Amino acid sequence: MSKPSFVVPLADLEREPRDVEWEIGEAWLGRALEGTDASPLGPGRLEARLTKNGKDVLVQGKATARVSVPDARTLEPVEVTLTSEVFLMLGPAPTDVGPKRGRQRPKKPGEVAPKKPKRGWNDDPELSDAQAGQDTYSGEEVVLDQFVREFLLLELPMVVHKDLPSGQAPGIAPPPAPEAEAEVRVDPRLAPLAAIAERLRERKN
């Protein structure tokens, strides 16, 4: 994604909740749908209310967009309306990414600086399960672009079938008609008896 489109300054939430409305541009939707079979059919809409509670930000709203998805059988384009309820609890992103760097003592003439120890995976701060799974905002702005994209992608149907009129809907072929009684095969071993029975019927008539 390029420059974010749905941004709210954190300072705007200090006094009271803020209601926002944005048009989701067709170009933005095109980038958001990359890697899928869907393509946008015009702009979408995003409505949300942001409420700051301490350091956390609650986001409640709705995102809608019209997209075209190929039919699973005919590959013809089918219009689908995506409607997603947006609900987020965002916390501030962790800023402690490593040990703080203090002022270093000036080196004396001829003194060799000690080698800095290499940092390994164990030196990185360990995040709790709650921190690792928490959605966050960074700095002094709340950027919603990535969250809106994820909510819309979750609404994409796995399989789409175009609704056809009853006369055009593909039907199931009827079973083959049973053979006529005259065409019923007779066991060759019973053929002489069948011939005698036929002559007896002719004599009676």
Molecular structure report:
The structure is a single chain. With 205 residues, the chain is α+β, with helices and mostly antiparallel strands. It has a domain at 1-94 and 134-164. The chain has four helices and eight strands. A hairpin with a 2-residue loop joins strand 4 (44-53) and strand 5 (56-70). The longest helix is centred in the last third of the chain and has 14 residues, at 191-204. 14% of the residues are buried.
**Secondary-structure element order, as H and E?**
EEHEEEEHEEHH
* Beta-strand segment tally: 8
- Can you tell me the overall shape? elongated
Helix percent band: 10-25%
**Could you name the ranges where pLDDT drops below 50 across 5 or more consecutive residues?**
none
Radius of gyration over C-alpha positions, nearest whole angstrom: 36 Å
User: What is the distance, rounded to the nearest whole angstrom, between the alpha carbons of the first and last residues?
Assistant: 94 Å
Task: Name the quaternary structure.
Answer: single chain
What is the arithmetic mean of pLDDT?
Answer: 80
Largest β-sheet summary: 6 strands, mixed
Summing up helix and strand content along with how strands pair, one would put the structural category as alpha+beta
Number of contiguous helices? 4
